[in-house]
Design a protein that fits this description.
With 203 residues, the protein is α/β, with parallel strands linked by helices. It has helices at 75-96, 114-121, 129-143, 154-166, 169-192, 196-202; strands at 9-21, 25-36, 55-67, 106-111, 149-153.
């Protein structure tokens, strides 16, 4: 049998969902990230905390993909549908894990679409029904998935994670600040400026 939980796990898992979409299809997957203890006396991992943890294990819990309708979806619609599917799966997994001796500690929704993340932060009054309904469902599903809920831009998160291992100290803080501001401006420009049709469709 496939086991997603390491034997030396410490605390509950973090439920991480990923959603994405394109013209032909959209999909989502959910992973469980566990922290586990290390009993190796010669461990060289700088994050190792011995029996207290410091090591992490991730395993696929479930995944699903769907084909877009025959009339087609625009990219913003497909990306939002992938995010909606991921939020549903996160809620299902969190609900299924409630019988464990340790409950999930948090839920994270990772999306690579700045359009979708902007929609989640926008007011629903300015959106068309398609976007309004799915935005509300994502927020409701994530709020019902646990006490600590986040949605993040996957690309920016990966870049910042890599920088943490390459640039130390005070320089890292300034570099992260510059990248966050510049990256947000560029992604918003690319997203909202793709075509006037997509821009009008959203708003």
């Amino acid at each position: 049998a496939r086991n997603t939980r390491p034997r030396n796990s410490v605390g509950g898992p973090v439920v991480v969902g990923l959603g994405d979409g394109a013209f032909p299809a959209y999909g989502a997957s959910v992973y469980l990230q566990w922290e586990y203890a290390c009993y190796e006396p010669g461990c060289t991992d700088p994050d190792c905390q011995g029996p207290a943890g410091g090591h992490y294990h991730s395993a696929l819990a479930c995944g699903k993909a769907r084909v877009t309708p025959l009339q087609g979806y625009t990219v913003p619609r497909s990306e939002l549908s992938g995010g909606t599917l991921a939020s549903r799966m996160i809620l299902k997994v969190v609900t299924a894990l409630q019988h464990l001796d340790v409950k999930p500690v948090s839920s994270i929704l990772l999306l690579d679409s700045e359009c979708t993340i902007s929609l989640l932060d926008a007011s629903s009054k300015i959106l068309k029904p398609f976007f309004q309904n799915r935005r509300s469902e994502i927020i409701e599903n994530m709020n019902n998935s646990g006490n600590s809920v986040q949605w993040r831009n996957l690309i920016m998160w990966q870049v910042l994670s890599m920088l943490q291992t390459c640039v130390p100290g005070e320089q890292l803080r300034w570099l992260i600040l510059v990248l966050a501001v510049c990256g947000s401006l560029v992604l918003n420009f690319l997203c909202w400026g793709e075509t006037s049709g997509q821009l009008l469709e959203i708003s």
